[in-house]
């Protein structure tokens, strides 16, 4: 990983932390809810989806301020999903980003409302006036909503819960992950690339879609590898919990070695899909390398 | 209540039921989640918020198709809030619209995802292309989001949960209700009135705002009266639960008789705020009468 990429990544992460802090109300009315929303959204995380928004924005030389709002919206959707996924009725996890999960630090009702209100705030931000041509903005908003809903992230979480104790085929596992994590990662790429002055050509759109699908899967395969090989301290969330919960993963399906090979294959395919974009795809390439390198 | 109003109300209710059914996926992937979303959103309810959207649309002679999408979005937000409010960690209610609550009929995790995905679907629908001038559409979307979030409905629910066992002053009770139910009712009025060809004048906007705030409060006062005086069978939800849960209400704050007087006062104030709009406010007037008459 080059020093330049590392620097860019840290800059985006700091900028996101500051912007998230600014866009979430501090106190006043419903002070405890607002405190809990800040707890759930602030304080780190790799900010992979914002990084994808900014990196994809470089393909079309998009404005920083526009990309920032898109990155905030995607990250707030992600933060909402974490607050809800950790609840006892869902994945029942007590640890997130190295700290107690939101419902542990506060309470279940608050964590539920935190997720609800973070989702709302995402769409509110993305509806702000003057961000870009209004018709394009509505398109991006619809893209984010489709990716988050019952045919995307929320539907994938439902499939995930239904898969506990079952043996899924690889296509079933891929569909579940394409929805649960892939859809929002794909949306991050398209939001970033949608911030340019002109719409993408059909051909570029198709290639970007191939890239986005591969990187979504790659992210999940690496996540499965990490859940199996890394420690709870490194992850900042409970390690080995997929196996403990008897959830199907790429590692349980293919074995460790084949899952690593598969990550390598997806990395090559994702990089190949970017090859037609030239130098402007440099950040996306480096980010693909970074996502793949997390496993080591 | 005139026969004409009754007919109009039934027509809007049927149209909403059909449109909700059409806008929610039937099955395919994540079939159980989609079944549960339909369970939570379909099958009746008075559809007060859609009625307000359509009635307010008459002020500006808005198109039916445009109003329908706004009405769907508001009702989906309302349906999401019911699915979440009934959960054990929140109000813990087992009965809704005369049937088992969503988490009872399905399970808690599903009801949680149902709420999440219904909220997303609301914003997705309101981002559909070709509905109206895109800049106006973004404005209405932001209006709905503000009303639903931590400074509106979700924040009000947080205040409501925090109020259990406490004695609130009337201003505190009104703030809680203005957020919890008032904000979405106000948004319904502004979404309907925002569907016209031109934006409202400042003066008309201010008068409509006075109306919307009064009717939001009126709705809540009547709800409190009903919770105290009607049967579970009539309500289709558990009666007397505010008292059982030791929640402050207008009845516990003022007593039954003064709460009834207050409802009458709000009814007069709401009607007065509409008086400058002329004949086009006929439906909103009739709807105000209807909301007030629910208590008897």
Describe the structure concisely for a colleague.
2 copies of one chain form a homodimer. Chain A is mostly helical and 296 residues long.
CATH superfamily placement of chain A:
Farnesyl Diphosphate Synthase
| CATH architecture annotation name of chain A | Orthogonal Bundle
CATH class of chain A: Mainly Alpha
What value does the Rg of chain A take, in angstroms?
Answer: 18 Å
Estimate percent helicity of chain A.
over 70%
Estimated share of beta-strand residues of chain A: under 5%
Biggest β-sheet of chain A, characterized? 2 strands, antiparallel
* Number of H- or I-type helical stretches of chain A: 15
Order of strands in the sheet with most strands of chain A: 1-2
Q: Largest chain interface and its two residue counts?
A: A-B, 53 and 53 residues
Shape of chain A: globular
Q: Number of folding domains of chain A? A: 1
Number of separate strands of chain A: 2
Termini Cα gap of chain A: 13 Å
What's the oligomerization state? homodimer
Q: What is CATH's topology name of chain A?
A: Farnesyl Diphosphate Synthase
Mean pLDDT over all positions of chain A: 93
Order of secondary-structure elements of chain A: HHHHEEHHHHHHHHHHH
């Amino acid at each position: 990983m080059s020093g330049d990429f590392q620097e860019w990544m840290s800059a985006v992460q700091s900028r996101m932390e500051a912007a998230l802090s600014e866009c979430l109300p501090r106190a006043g009315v419903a002070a405890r809810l607002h405190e809990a929303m800040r707890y759930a959204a602030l304080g780190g995380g790799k900010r992979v989806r914002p990084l994808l928004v900014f990196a994809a924005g470089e393909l079309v030389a998009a404005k920083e301020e526009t990309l920032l709002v898109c990155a905030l919206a995607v990250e707030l959707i992600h933060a909402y999903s974490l607050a809800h996924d950790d609840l006892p009725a869902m994945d029942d996890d007590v640890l997130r980003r190295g700290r107690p999960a939101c419902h542990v630090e506060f309470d279940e009702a608050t964590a539920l409302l935190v997720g609800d209100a973070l989702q709302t705030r995402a769409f509110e931000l993305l509806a702000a006036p003057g961000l870009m041509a209004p018709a394009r903005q509505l398109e991006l908003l619809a893209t984010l909503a489709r990716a988050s809903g019952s045919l995307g992230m929320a539907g994938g979480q439902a499939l995930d819960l239904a898969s506990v104790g079952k043996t899924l085929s690889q296509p079933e596992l891929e569909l579940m992950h394409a929805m649960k994590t892939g859809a929002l990662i794909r949306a991050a790429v398209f939001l970033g690339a949608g911030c340019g002055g002109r719409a993408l050509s059909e051909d570029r759109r198709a290639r970007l879609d191939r890239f986005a699908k591969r990187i979504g899967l790659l992210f999940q395969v690496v996540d499965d590898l990490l859940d199996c090989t890394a420690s709870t301290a490194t992850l900042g969330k409970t390690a080995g919990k997929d196996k403990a919960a008897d959830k199907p993963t790429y590692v349980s399906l293919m074995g460790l070695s084949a899952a690593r090979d598969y990550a390598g294959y997806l990395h090559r395919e994702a990089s190949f899909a970017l090859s037609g974009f030239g130098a402007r795809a440099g950040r996306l390439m480096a980010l693909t390398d970074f996502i793949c390198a997390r496993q080591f």
